[in-house]
Q: What sequence folds into this?
């Protein structure tokens, strides 16, 4: 028998698919307006993340920018949910990537085992929505060329993800507020 949380997630997934289907059936003008608002959200979140990253002298501010774009959704609650998944994924992927880099030689077998471990770990901890993102973080730590100790790479990656989320959340909230108050959406 499915757990209540699994039933709830299945229900939310069904609602999300219904909403996506409804958006696809909108007339072109309405889709263009919704797309414009979504693009503005993503641009503002990305620009804020990049600007703050540059001011903080983050060498790879593009990771914060990519996170800001990835977690930005049409609704604040969805942005918050995506941000939570991204943060969990960065932590889980960082831990597994750090462990793999510290314990095993750098080869394809160690990398693939690490991906396997982080995905199974997320599923076992009931955060399956973060599993693919955690595997991506592990991949970044193990395969993207970088200099410095593995622990530093893992911590910096978590910080960059946090910066991206910290930029996307207020932007999403502000846009939601503007849409409700001024545009009546």
A:
């Amino acid at each position: 028998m499915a757990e209540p949380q699994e039933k709830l997630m299945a229900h939310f997934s069904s609602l999300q698919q219904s909403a996506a289907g409804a958006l696809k059936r909108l007339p072109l003008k309405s889709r263009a307006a919704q797309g414009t608002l979504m693009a503005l959200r993503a641009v503002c979140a990305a620009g804020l993340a990049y600007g703050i990253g540059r001011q903080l002298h983050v060498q790879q501010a593009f990771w914060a920018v990519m996170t800001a774009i990835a977690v930005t959704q049409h609704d604040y609650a969805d942005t918050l949910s995506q941000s939570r998944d991204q943060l969990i994924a960065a932590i889980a992927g960082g831990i597994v990537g750090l462990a793999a880099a510290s314990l095993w030689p750098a080869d394809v077998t160690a990398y693939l085992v690490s991906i396997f471990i982080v995905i199974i770990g997320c599923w076992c901890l009931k955060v399956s929505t973060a599993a693919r993102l955690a595997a991506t973080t592990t991949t970044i730590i193990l395969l993207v060329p970088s200099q410095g100790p593995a622990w530093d790479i893992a911590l910096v990656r978590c910080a960059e993800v946090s910066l991206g989320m910290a930029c996307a959340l207020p932007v999403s909230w502000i846009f939601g507020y503007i849409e409700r108050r001024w545009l009546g959406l």
Remarks:
- The CA atoms of residues 45 and 168 lie 5 Å apart.
- The chain has a mean pLDDT of 86.
- DSSP finds seven helices and no strands in the chain.
- The radius of gyration is 18 Å.
